[in-house]
Write a structure and sequence with these properties.
Chain B: GO terms for molecular function: phosphorelay response regulator activity; protein-glutamate methylesterase activity. The complex is a heterodimer. By secondary structure, chain A is an alpha/beta fold. Chain A contains ten helices and ten strands. Chain B has one domain: Methylesterase CheB, C-terminal domain (Rossmann fold, 3-Layer(aba) Sandwich). The chains are: A alpha/beta, B alpha/beta.
Amino acid sequence: MSPPERGSELERLELELLLEAVWRHYGFDLRDHARPLLLRQLRRHLREERLDTLSALQGRVLHDADAMEGLLRALAGPSRPLFAEPAFFRSFRARVVPVLRTWPSVRVWHAGCGSGEETYALAILLMEEGLWGRCRLYASDASEGLLADARTGVIPLPDEEESRHYLEAGGRRALSDYYTRDGNWAVFSRALREGIFFTQHNLATDGSFNEFQVVLCRDTLLAYNRALSHRVHRRLYESLSRFGFLCLGRKESVASTPHAAAYEELEDSGRVFRRVA
Amino acid sequence: MSPLGLLVVGAPREALEEVQAALAEMPARMPVPVVLVLHRGLHEVLAGPLGHRCPLPVVEPDDKEALLPGRVYLAPAGYHLLVDGNCVCLSREPAEHGQRPSIDALFESASEAHGPGVAGLLFGGHEDGWAGLAALREQGGRAAVTRAAEETEGVERVPPGGVKDWLARLVPVTRMKVLP
């Protein structure tokens, strides 16, 4: 049997059935993911798995929990390099850190941490700014597999570009001061690893779990459709203390969300918003 | 022919000047949104220069922004721009044909979202965009290319100077109402 034509009625039906199966069997709700993006991710995953149809993927996922984990990884996308978008980290140092210094303790939530590169980059920054002692850094993701990777603190050995990004981000030492080399891998120092609390949390379905002074959620909501993204924005809002900071991706905004009025954007900050109401 | 709902334009970096010229030919009363992918570097500032001679505002949209008629939406650097109904859907997925934003990604998503209501214009010279044009054709949309080595079935050939005529055929000029 030949695979269904892209964008056909049959493909749409198969997609609905797959999402329903994943929801009913595993409790992962992918039904409100942004459809065009989800379809592209699923089609790529099919090619990589050498499967012809979404129905075939559904069969495999239902009978094999490892295949489900593989699907979640495919939807999480590739891991990002350390200090990708140094401009964000630079403005975080300049605009957010001085405020955090005036607070006795700071809880930070990195929502949608994936395999953890950005979490470690943030941890390095907080350490350099002398905030590590009074910060508690929570990082969450829906995928237990990605979290397991993140907890190990092992990443591919940073390349020259990543070292350069670290310096552009305002880094004060050498990136290599923070890890030990093991062949082609880098292992982050114990102080970094043990100071981050990696915990499973599904933004799509789980509620708020604490109150935070900083919430980092960068490019994670791109995967969701407008309705779900608004629901998640409600969670983020509820999880943020008054005058706390919400850090989004370069092309994400609170402007069209129900909470737009509750935030003030820090000028030239690369999408850092402060909750003022 | 079904009425036009969306115009998508794709171009490699070398075609920047041709794209500028084409944007200058846009009708001031464009009744549909125009979405543009131009291959670009991460730190290139393009919305300003592209909007300079264009009668329509050229903007780099945020994720989930609505697509409104009479505006040109330029895919931001480092993101694919997909069309989700009448909304922008940005993505950080891997580059395609070495490009992010990718023309194929835009064209394919637009054709799935709007079917025969999409017209696509590709400034040739790069492998990115051809699969997207094919997808547009399959869904019944209109497809045109500025430079093509050979004839492709269902794809119109528009010489660089002919974009204005092509647009005029897509978007019939609305007559001004005669006021009494």
